[in-house]
Every structure is written in C-alpha cells, then in structure tokens.
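Example 4.3 (complexes with small molecules)
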Amino acid sequence: MSKETEKKHDGFIRRKGILAVISGFSGAGKGTLMKELIRNYDNYSLSISATTRQPRPGEVDGKDYFFVSKERFKEMIKNDELLEYAQYVDNYYGTPKAYVEAEMEKGKDVILEIEIQGALKIRAKYPDSVLIFITTPSAEELLSRLKKRGTESDEVIKKRIERAMLEAVGVEAYDYILINDNLDKTVKHLNYLIQDQHMRASQQLEFLEEFQKELRTVI
Ligand code: 5GP
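Answer. The structure with guanosine-5'-monophosphate bound is encoded below.
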C-alpha cells in the first residue's frame, strides 16, 4: 500500500464526516448526552438549529438554538438556507445547511439533534447518514423526567407525551435504538455507533479504488 494510504490508515480511512441524526422522546436525556459526547470526544460538531419557540430559562441564542421569528423562519425556508425543517408542538424547527456541509467537508462528524419528520428527510437526502433513537427504559420514567425538568406547563408536557406516542410508531425507521439508563455507558455506545459508520464500505470507496489499482501493479 502506498505511503500516503498507510499514513491515513487507522482502522479506517476518514475521508468525510458522518452525519449522525439523534432523535428521542422529549425528556429522554438527549441534551445531556450530546453535551457529554462533545465534551469527551473532539471529532464532533453539533449543529445548532433555528426555532420559533421561546427560549427556556438558561438557554442562550446562538448556543442552544438560533431563536428566530416566524417571519425569519419563513425567509430561511424561501432562501433554501435549511437542510430540513419540521413543525413540533406549535413551533417550527430547522437545520441550517451551510454549517453542516462545511463541517462534514472538514471531516467532522456532525450531530443533528432533531425530531422524526426531519430525521426521515435527512435519510432521504443523505442515505449514508446514521439515525439513532434515544429512549428512557420506560414511559413512566419519561413522564417523571419531563416533570422534574420543570420548564414546561402541564399542557405542554401532555402534548409532548402525545407526540411521543406518535413517534413511537415511527421508530422502526431508525438504524439503532439506545436505551439511556446510564449516562456514561450511553455516551460510549453512541460514540461507537457513530464511529463504526466510518468502516462502512460506502465510506471507503476511494480506499477501495486505490487498493484495486495497487493490486494491478503489485505483482
Ligand atoms: P425542544 O423544544 O425540546 O428543544 O425540541 C423539540 C423537538 O424538536 C426535539 O425532538 C428536537 O430534537 C427537535 N428539533 C430540534 N431542532 C430541530 C431541527 O432543526 N429540525 C427538526 N426537524 N427537529 C428539531
């Protein structure tokens, strides 16, 4: 194998970043998981979504979300600035396109923390993306985590549980389901799942091509 190829070899050859879509029931602990993933491993970039929802206490514009008006959101759709968007419990959420594409091009694995309609749109556009669904071990635990968070009214919690009932039906479309019963363990599993995607044959086409060329000249 050529020196160049050997240098890049590390169990796999990293050509381009993976697009990892993480969804999960509201209250399943996705936010904390994402924070820990980014803190523990340096190959990830977290996409920041635009939303028309009001910030929760402690949320920062440009860090947790880009909080925008309905008018600005419509303009983003019109200007083709979003990779996907969806409506979720009375508000709009969307993934800004430019950041995701630039980070993947740099070789970063990009995390989209989005709901199911958006996830399916990403899968249609990027067949190589990996879709991972996070859940609590039980529905009871989900309700208790939502209540403990204390940031939503009973009415919104009810809507989020109703939404979970709908999403539970679509979960088969995902590649993996991760039960978040222990933060450290789940963060490790999540990292393995995403890093394994680099070894897919479809991610290694340039390597295979180079290998085939060398086979022809090796004897
Ligand atoms: P929350 O209001 O709890 O922050 O988010 C509500 C839901 O919207 C979550 O399921 C979250 O994953 C999803 N979401 C956040 N950003 C986006 C986005 O850019 N696109 C889509 N489709 N869903 C998103």
